[in-house]
Design brief:
α4 packs antiparallel against α13 and α5 packs parallel to α13. The chain contains 16 helices and 17 strands. The protein is 38% helix and 18% strand. The protein has 457 residues and is an alpha/beta fold. The longest helix has 22 residues. The structure holds pyridoxal-5'-phosphate. The site of pyridoxal-5'-phosphate has 15 residues, from α6. Pyridoxal-5'-phosphate binds next to α6.
């Protein structure tokens, strides 16, 4: 069976690499029609225009097959949710074993599974982050981080960054760095301020004794894989300390090995007071998130042990699965592997960027958190289309459509990185030859509607 997810021969062991179902194009049509009718017709239209009207069927490691039987290297991975690969056999086995005796558990009781996972997270997390509050998703984890910061400091202001992304729940949405997500729901929480990411002076200008916390992603994901200047995070840490504010790092996309370190903060030698993780913690199988914080901040919870509750947050079942996710990352050397595969990808991307300066403006990122910035916005959806024709699922950034995110599963093998590079070369050549959707047909529409959300025709 599957041994590690990464073999020395560069193969996936017994992980399925061949299709094992009968393609059904009619089922795809039916699913799209029902999705349009009962969920969201505009989403179907947008996805179709970018060649992303893919209905996932078989999932295995870094690959996904759609209902038509087409195979794609998944470079979107639900924005970094599949670090250990999709349906990793070890994770599936752990889930099946857990189902034999667990359910989600009684949330109000103490739990052996929660305790075991929290202990493991404490061991793996940077600095003094030894306490955990569990949740079901990233937004919820950030909500609690913000609540804890306000509750523990008794200060109101939360500073986040322009184009930052922290989820769509209440407090997290208030910290969203994109007005289109916030505006229709105003008034949101008071005392939330946004400053440009990477700009220490702008940050220092808003920090004062009313600031509870600064909340940011060490590398912006939805904002377009934006890597800050090397000294930025340390400067943020210092600035927070000067005014007694807390530093919350959202490692929901960047964590769990994605950038070639367990946590992206390690690249910068910075230890936060609060850190959030979610997405890949669930191993592509269960919803789970965690907010990690220091003993000092736990003081706030001592007199308030029931102040933040969640029926499903850190369910016994999810904790058992997540524990195996951490084991797989550690035992199979996925963090180091991500750094090695990232280096291979960057080397190939640099060659392509030099060959196609009329399309590619910049390549950036760390490990396997990679962004390709095109020279203009319509190239994001057009390249998604072309890449889909070459067997790659890749999607432009939510807050920055000119940036294509390349975030394959960390189990990706050298030959799959080469496959991705070949697909990119083919897609860029198709673009140059004038094939596929045009600039006009994919032009970015800033809707004059209430929501003003970016759309593609
Ligand atoms: C950095 C970051 N924070 C928070 C979230 C929100 O996570 P969720 O969708 O699980 O609420 C995301 C999701 O993409 C994210 O990328």
């Amino acid at each position: 069976m599957y041994h590690s997810g990464v073999t020395s021969e560069g193969s996936h062991g017994d992980w399925a690499t061949e299709i094992d179902f009968i393609p059904d194009p009619l089922a795809k049509q039916r699913a799209l029609e029902d999705f349009a009718r009962f969920l969201n017709p505009q989403k179907v239209r947008v996805m179709r225009s970018a060649g992303l009207d893919i209905i996932e069927a078989q999932r295995s490691g870094p690959w996904v097959w759609d209902l038509e039987g087409r195979r794609f290297l998944d470079c979107f991975t639900s924005a970094g949710s599949f670090n250990v690969g999709r349906r990793n056999p070890r994770i599936v086995a752990a889930a099946k074993a857990a189902l034999d005796h667990l359910d989600h558990g009684n949330f109000l009781l103490c739990s052996a599974q929660k305790a075991a996972l929290a202990r493991r997270l404490a061991e793996l997390s940077p600095g003094d982050l030894t306490c955990t509050m569990f949740g079901t998703g990233g937004g919820e984890a950030n909500d609690f981080a913000i609540k804890l910061a306000r509750g523990a400091t008794r200060r109101p202001t939360i500073v986040s960054t322009v184009n930052g992304y922290h989820g769509h729940t209440g407090f997290s949405l208030s910290a969203a760095g994109r007005a289109a997500f916030r505006d229709p729901f105003e008034p949101l929480m008071p005392d939330f301020v946004q400053v440009p990411f990477g700009d220490t002076d702008a940050l220092e200008a808003v920090l004062d004794e009313r600031t509870a916390a600064v909340l940011l992603e060490p590398i912006q994901g939805e904002g377009g894989i934006v890597v800050p200047p090397p000294a930025y995070l340390a400067a943020v840490r210092e600035a927070c300390d000067r005014v007694g504010a807390l530093l919350i790092l959202d490692e929901i996309q960047t964590g769990l090995g994605r950038t070639g370190k367990w946590w992206a903060s390690e690249h910068y030698g910075v230890e936060p007071d609060i850190m959030t993780t979610a997405k890949s913690l669930g191993g592509s199988i269960v919803p789970i998130s965690a907010t990690l914080f220091t003993d000092e901040l736990r003081e706030f919870l001592i007199p308030n042990p029931f102040i933040h509750l969640s029926t499903f947050g850190g369910s016994d079942f999810a904790c058992a699965v997540a524990l195996e996710v951490l084991n797989v990352i550690e035992e199979t050397g996925l963090v180091e592997h991500a750094a090695t595969m990232g280096a291979r990808l960057f080397a190939g991307l640099d060659v392509l960027a030099a060959k196609y300066p009329e399309y590619v403006k910049e390549v950036r990122g760390k490990g396997l958190m990679v962004g390709v910035e095109y020279v203009e916005e319509s190239l994001g959806p057009r390249m998604s289309y072309h890449l889909s024709q070459h067997g790659v699922l890749a999607i432009y950034s939510g807050n920055q459509p000119s940036v294509m995110r390349l975030m394959p599963s960390l189990v990706v093998q050298p030959q799959e990185i080469d496959y991705l590079l070949d697909a990119l070369a083919g897609a860029l050549a198709d673009l140059q030859a004038g094939a596929g959707p045009t600039e006009d047909s994919t032009r970015v529409r800033r809707r004059p509607s209430r929501t003003n959300v970016t759309e593609y025709d």
